[in-house]
Amino acid sequence: MRFHHNKGWKRVHHQMKKLLFSYLKEKRYSLLFFGLFLLIFAVIYNLYAVDWEAYFYAAGLCIFIGLMILIFPFIRFLDSHKERLIKISSIEQDYGTLPVAETLAEQDYQEMVAALGRRCNELSTAFQAERQDSLDYYTTWVHQIKTPIAVMQMILKAEDTEEHQELSAELFRIEQYAEMVLSYIRLGSETNDFVFQEYALDDLIRQSIRKYAPQFIRRKIRLIYEPAEGTVLTDEKWLCFILEQLLSNAVKYTYQGSVSISVSPEKVLTIRDTGIGIAPEDLPRIFEKGFTGYNGRADKKSTGLGLYLSKQASDKLGIRISAVSRPGQGTAISLDLSSRKLEVE
Length: 345
Description:
64% of the residues lie in helices and 12% in strands. It has ten helices and seven strands. Strands 2-4-5-7-6 form a five-stranded mixed sheet, covered by helices on one side. It has a two-stranded antiparallel sheet with strand order 1-3. Helix 5 (104-157) runs antiparallel to helix 6 and helix 6 packs across helix 10. The radius of gyration is 34 Å and the shape is elongated.
């Protein structure tokens, strides 16, 4: 405790010393002229052989008055500095209500800040409008592209051949990539469409499993799942999106074996596969944007966006996501669904 107190005092002392030096630097010309005047008086007193005691007395009075003149403005200097620091935290909204300018230079700087603030607001408004236009376009595009995909899937299901099954799987991937584009734009938007409600966890998991069931069957991968109990306060669409991305990765990188889904009593949902695993040096970076790692580069089909988007959506839902993996032994991705305490409005 004493160590932290001394450390905090040293920090304050250092900050005060820094501010004092800044203040003196601003007043350097006034101090220079003051010292020059004392020197001139000393020379004149010496030329007229005036008693030095009178000089030192007059100089002492001048120095004392000068210090008083410097101290009171220094207090105002500190107050103005604190006020500016407060304004900095909200400068984007309060750039038009800056402290009263005391000099012409401060007034000029404030006008420049105000001009920059207005320009930033204009650019931000234009950017948001353009982003909304893009979101509207891609939303419409995704819904439109689903129609021909659904028609093609119905045509392919009319004849159950191996070739048609492969084409259906590729169509499914196309549909997932289209959804990923829309999710990518929505997650990057300042506005969101999150709706938090209580959902039965088992229903959400089964919903995602049904969507990927044909992929498990086609790849001959065994799915192990015991019904989960309890509810979770979350957004249905985005939690299912996360589960689907994790199931997609599990199916993609598991060539034989199984994928298991389990939920602990503490509401930690884990999707574990027996796939190729992740290299130890790649594991810390798997949630980075565009990072594919060694296995992803070898696969030539990885975009590096699935886990990144899962992490972004998890952060917005207040879910902690983590991964453990061993090369050749599989990967386990965990979602801590109890990490955020929310209340239904």
